[in-house]
Here is the input.
Amino acid sequence: MLTLQSSPGIDAVKLGYLVAAFIAFAAAAWSIWRSATLDLSVARTWLLMSLAFWAVLAMSFAVSRAEGTPIGDWARDAVTYALFASVPIFALDAAWSAPRRAIITLLVIVGVLGALSWATHWIQLRHIADLPLSRLLFPSPQVPVALYLFAMAAAIQKGRGGGRWALLAGLVLGCFLVTGTRSSLLFLAGPLAMMAVAGRERLRSSVTWLAAHGSVAVAIVLAFQAALWLPSVAVPPLSTSTPSPVPGGGTTAPPNIIGERIGTIGSLASNPLGDPSLRERIAQYQAAFDLVRRSPLVGMGPGHQIEWTDVSNIRRSAFTADTPLVYLVKFGLVGLIPLGLFLWAYVDLLRRLLGGVGRTASALVLVGYGGLALIGLPLGFPMEDKGTSFALMLILALCFGDLRAASERHRVHRDSLKPGSAVAPRDPAALVAPVSRG
Here is the structure.
């Protein structure tokens, strides 16, 4: 994520990163192939999904060349899906080779830095304040969202001991709210979905931590807005003019950009077509739909430019757009094969966790992340964001690790029941204790 934010194009640093990533992918695949303890049955569907994505990517190269797309444009766009295809390999290798605490630590570090980077990037972009840094890491919302959901899941699971996790979740949510990003309010759907699965016995603590983390997020927004009013910090948002005098001396305070953007939700509901952001999304939907109609079966291939006219009547073009139709633009109906395998693998993993392991934090994150992805689907296709692959690597590594731990506990318990086993307890009632604690 540090490398990806270095420049918008492909440079020597990114090429070096791609080489290193390929070596890491090959090493992880070799480690999985040679492992004597790894149970591939827990990820068989994920591996099929990975192979299907690689096959579709290979097909898309021929499609892109037929459409006249430059090879460099195809590669820049296709690498996002190549990264996604490699997710199960990296996640499996991490689950069998890295301690759970190390994976969680990495999630916390990258998630916090990603949230701060998102905040600084959009605060600058929307001229809310003048900050010394424009970003820290690649400003993707996906890894911070994964951390937010894990923190809330850990708080819900721990009950009274979940205070620090609720505080962390509030910090992440606050970083999104200070930018005036209205879609960040959808984050609350994740904890609500997890609460529904967590069970009635955790309902009271779930409501407590939901309210607590929301209070932390609101406090961060209020503190930031108050800081904008200080003469040493405040800048006139969306304007470079000098603040005008007001009666009684002093100058006008900066407009409440955050409150104004959040406050437009009501007008958006009553008059959707009056919102500039929504009108531009509609234009992107129409442009993508026109391309899908041109080549519904195999799409136009990655790297194909999607062109639309924005609200300022300026012609725009990009590889991606804020619509899920962008996936069909690139891969057509054939692309639904690996996508269907992905959904199958996701649901199967969730079933295995809830049925065989229990309502662990990892299982709750899987519920929340899936629910949030479905709700946010009309706003764009998640796989277009490289951060989605990084987030899923960490989430799946934790999920596969839970399945591995449960399998090992089951094996130890089974071996202890064998006559003459060295681990067989003298008291038959003692057999229940390790399983109950697990």
In short: Residues 115 and 144 are 5 Å apart (CA to CA).
